[in-house]
Amino acid sequence: MNKSRIKTNEQIGREILKLQEIESIRAKERQIVSGGDKKSKEFKEKSVSVPGSLTDPPTQIEKPKIETQENGKTVDIIGTKLGISGKTVENTIKAVKLKAELYLALFHVYC
Predict the structure, then answer these.
(1) Which residue among 27, 56, 88, 92 is least enclosed by CB atoms within 10 Å?
(2) Torsion of CA 51, 54, 56, 59, to 10 degrees
């Protein structure tokens, strides 16, 4: 992210796409650190049963949550980094992807 120069809307859009790739990976890592999906088989295997009577169901003990610096939706994190809203990030992603599809369609028509 080079904030010291003016970029075209397309350059900003491509930057957003790259940041989306990066932040999606970081979001998965945050989910793993915080315990992931509580309903998943993986989570249930990690939890420990506390011995009790036969009629008592086992108590689930969770891993403690580790706070991270960035929490929230990926588009909101990207928007914060670029100084725009999450909704603008979503719209820009759609526009850049649509433009790429149109270029490909035109390329196939003329070649």
Answers:
(1) 56
(2) 30
